[in-house]
Amino acid sequence: MADRDRSGIYGQHQQGGGRPMAMGEQVKGMIHDKGPTASQALTVATLFPLGGLLLVLSGLALAATVVGLALATPVFLLFSPVLVPAALLIGTAVAGFLTSGALGLGGLSSLTCLANTARQAFQRTPDYVEEARRRMAEAAAQAGHKTQQAGHAVQSRAQEAGAGAGGGAGGAGTGGGRASS
User: Which Gene Ontology terms describe the biological processes this protein takes part in (predicted)?
Assistant: First the structure.
């Protein structure tokens, strides 16, 4: 039982012939049987020297920066009463120009948006005006129709009142005209 557990731990599985596989054969089984293609090998062969060259150049740039800073530090210390205010002035001026440009672009874009909105509103206005005219014409026609109906009603009541009063039955106090309402 210990042999079985040990073989499971160390990965010595049995081959078809009954002998255990060596560790190197197992690793070979995990690696693909094919090697890199020609294009992959060419890519590595091309990019490896280029990457090395760029790494060397970045190291040289770092070394030059450190040496330059070491040489320039005494000069900066001697001229700091002049350089610090000049650097602050230049930094403030650059910040002001950048802020001015950003605010100008923001204002210009908001005015452009407003102009586009106004243009679209004016293009839609004739539709609204035509709809308002149509509604006003409908309202005027309806008001005219109601006025005509009211006029006919008043006329018919007047005729009824005139027929009742002309029939001769009453005087002023009899109230003959009120009976019809």
Answer: lipid storage; response to freezing; seed oilbody biogenesis
Handedness of CA 149, 154, 157, 159 (dihedral sign): negative
Q: How far apart are CA 175 and CA 164, in angstroms?
A: 10
CA atoms lying within 13 Å on the CB side of residue 176: 14
Q: What is the reported pLDDT for 75?
A: 86
* Integer Cα distance of 177 and 141 in angstroms: 33
Torsion of CA 83, 87, 88, 92, to 10 degrees: 160
- In the block, residue with structure tokens 């990457």: 51
Q: What are the extents of the domains in the chain?
A: 86-162
Cα separation of 110 and 8, whole Å? Answer: 73
- CA atoms in the 13 A half-sphere facing the CB of 152: 6
What residues in the chain have per-residue pLDDT under 70? 1-33, 124-125, 165-181
Distances (CA, A) of 116 to 107, 119, 129, 136: 14, 5, 20, 30
Q: Residue 10's closest CA among 18, 22, 1, 28?
A: 22
Q: What is the model's pTM?
A: 0.32
